[in-house]
Every structure is written in structure tokens, then in C-alpha cells.
């Protein structure tokens, strides 16, 4: 899929981690503040934080760890979709984080899993970030990575050989400028483009539609605010106040559209609904062997299992959307989905 050029004013960075606290340590390091406390090792929902990296405006998107066993597959897939909305219209870089002292053979699968989730060309936009908490100096660490640790070197080569070592103490930001240079250099080598695919384009489409809907919904509120401003300010000060107000409202609407839009509300409901019906019917058929009571019992069990499986199957379509037509769209209440996942872990 063709990659598109984005605004140079803000870098959109998606942080990926297989397990543990590495991506949260990196978020603090990039932003220069404690966005995540030191005891955070996993999250169940995507987050977005903005700030500056060595003077450059950045948006940092965190998603659940790839191997986090506390999240069921349906929820995981929905959070993947949400992460694509949060970095709409597409990320400039994927920062793939590992603990330099705890690289496992299982983490060698991370590149393959990333391609399955984001598209086969996403590795071109990746930099490996290695968290380190020891006393070795940076030259010695880089020498270890490049010359002695063959497992790690092989992993980094899958990401084009790009890597950066950062301190687990986020207050130690001596190499933050170097990290920014590496990101900007990679983006420049790709023509100044951010990563895009069919699903990222779809995410952008739905975010924009939701923005438009919310803006129209708040037209009366905005007009009323302007009338009040015109009573209090004049000339240049009035224009400044209006510009600031519009910017604030626009940012608020954008954030709402990224977190909740029709694309996030519909596909899961479709999968859950279809799976629920099919599962209930199949369960009832098997239960009929034991009589009417068995039909009811197995129908309920089949519906629950089918709903979960159907949701997984539906959101898994996202991995294929670069090759097939997008699924049909239905309406659904996202609050129900969030409550369902909050109360149901096993899948």
C-alpha cells in the first residue's frame, strides 16, 4: 500500500512491546514525565499522550503488550483497531521495545506478529528500542548488540538494523536528541511519509466522519460562545480568543472521535451477534439429544461460546483488509462492549 506524507509538525509514534514494562518506561523517557508509574507492567486499553521529544512535538500511542495473557482475543483485537484510530491517519514510526537484559526466543516472533497486525510493510517504519538499567556505558552496550549478542542482532536485523538504547531511568535523557534524529532520519529515508494501509485509511475515514458529526452537534454551543466573546473582547483580542477557543474545541472533538467512532462500535457487535446466533442454534441441536432441558442449557452455552468466537473472527478480518473488501457496517452501543469486556476475561 502506498505510504502518504504527513505533517512535519507532530510525530505520531506507536509503541509496541511483547511483555513487561519496557514500552511504559520508553513513554516516560520520550515525554520527559511520568505518564506511567514504575509499577505499571501492562495495560488493558490503548492510551495516547502528547508532549515533546527534544523540542519536537510528538504523540505517543501505547497498546496492550502482545503477549499479555490477561486480555482475551476479542478485546485485544478491538484495542488494535483503536490504536489505529489514535494515530490516524497513520504512524510515522513504530518503536518496538525490549528489555536488553531479558531478550527471549519467544520475542523473535514479534516481527511476524507485527506484520500480521499492521501490514507486511510496517517493519520499514520500525526502530528497536532497548531498555537498559545497568552501569555499562553506551559504546560498550552498542558493541555488545552489534558483535556479541547474536540472538538480539538477528532480531534487530529483521527491523532493518535500526536500534536505540535508552535508560530505564526516564529522567536520564542524555540520548533523547539522538533518538529523535534516528526517527527523523528513518522518516526522511521513506520520503517523509507516515505508514498507511487499507485499515489505517479506514480508521482515518471513520475518525473524520465522527469529527464532522460532533462538530455539527456542537454548532449551537460554538455560536453561543462566540456571542459571549464579542461582548467581552474587541479587535485583535477577540480574534485571538476565538482562535484559541476553536483550537481547544477542535482538539477535544478530535480526541473523542479517535476514541469512539462507528468503526470501533460496529464490527465487534456484528461478530458477537452472528456468533451468538450460530452458537445458540448449534448448542440447542446438540442439547436436543438430552431433551428440552438440554436444548436450553446447551443453547445458552453455545450462544456464549459462539458470541466470543464470532467477535474474534469478525475483528480478525482486519488482518485481511489489505486484500479483501471491508465488512458491512452495523450500529451498536460501545458502552455495552466495554462493560462486557470488563466483566469477562476468559475467552
UniProtKB/TrEMBL annotation:
Residues 8-204 form the AIG1-type G domain. Gene3D superfamilies: P-loop containing nucleotide triphosphate hydrolases (3.40.50.300). The chain crosses the membrane at residues 268-289, 295-317. The keyword Transmembrane helix applies. One of its GO terms (molecular function) is GTP binding. Belongs to the TRAFAC class TrmE-Era-EngA-EngB-Septin-like GTPase superfamily. AIG1/Toc34/Toc159-like paraseptin GTPase family. IAN subfamily. PANTHER family: GTPASE IMAP FAMILY MEMBER 4-LIKE-RELATED (PTHR10903:SF177), GTPASE, IMAP FAMILY MEMBER-RELATED (PTHR10903). This is GTPase IMAP family member 4.
